[in-house]
Specification:
The protein contains no helices and 13 strands. It is mostly beta strands. It folds into two domains: 123 residues, TolB, C-terminal domain (Neuraminidase); 47 residues, Laminin (Ribbon), CATH 2.10.25.10. The strands form four sheets. Strands 4-5-6-7 form a four-stranded antiparallel β-sheet, with no helix packed on it. A four-stranded antiparallel β-sheet has the order 8-9-10-11, with no helix packed on it. The radius of gyration is 19 Å and the shape is elongated. InterPro entries: 6-blade_b-propeller_TolB-like, Cueball_EGF_LRP_Nidogen, LDLR_classB_rpt. GO terms for molecular function: Wnt receptor activity; Wnt-protein binding. This is LRP1B protein. Pfam families: FXa_inhibition (PF14670), Ldl_recept_b (PF00058).
Length: 179
């Protein structure tokens, strides 16, 4: 699944399949300007920062179990968000520092380091990497991803895929080659 935020005409947090199909709103009420998003892949939770409402909130993948982690002026300048173990990590763009926030109760907010310039944060650690299993976009015997001549996107499951073409090309009737 692909998770994303939108604060155009109607602010929301959404998810869809990697090919863009099955687009679903998971949060569309009491949300104004969601700017950063992070996933807890193990427990299947979505965290986001709303800079207009000065809050960090969480829901499960279906949009249930919503609650506020932390609210207040210290949220106003947050950008970027990452989850690791018991904490959320974010960048405060006002004083350009990395903050650590307890994701279960919003307490224990600590400034960990100052930076020259940052807008995003990621945690790379072996335990946060999902195990890779065989999937529909693996290279075929000819080296084509999922048998697609240009782009292979996972669909509704890791066993299904959709082929797409680069700009200027159209998908052939076989659903795999681009012309």
């Amino acid at each position: 699944k692909l998770f994303f935020t939108d604060y155009g005409n109607a602010a929301k947090v959404e998810r869809c399949d990697m090919d863009g199909m099955n687009r679903t709103w998971i949060v569309n009420a009491k949300i104004e300007q969601p700017t950063a998003l992070a996933l807890d892949l193990i427990n299947k939770y979505v965290y986001w920062v709303d800079v207009y409402l000065d809050s960090v909130e969480v829901v499960d993948y279906q949009g249930r179990k919503r609650h506020t982690i932390i609210k207040g002026k210290q949220i106003r300048h947050l950008c970027g968000l990452a989850v690791f173990e018991n904490y959320l990590y974010t960048v405060n763009s006002d004083n350009v520092s990395i903050l650590r926030i307890n994701r279960y109760n919003g307490t224990d907010v600590q400034s960990l380091a100052g930076l020259d310039n940052a807008k995003e944060i990621r945690v790379y650690q072996k335990r946060t990497q999902a195990a890779v299993r065989s999937h529909a976009c693996e290279a075929d015997p000819y080296g084509l991803p999922g048998g697609c001549s240009h782009i292979c996107l996972l669909s509704s499951s890791y066993k299904a895929r959709t082929c797409r073409c680069r700009t200027g090309f159209i998908l052939g009737s076989d659903g795999r080659s681009c012309k």
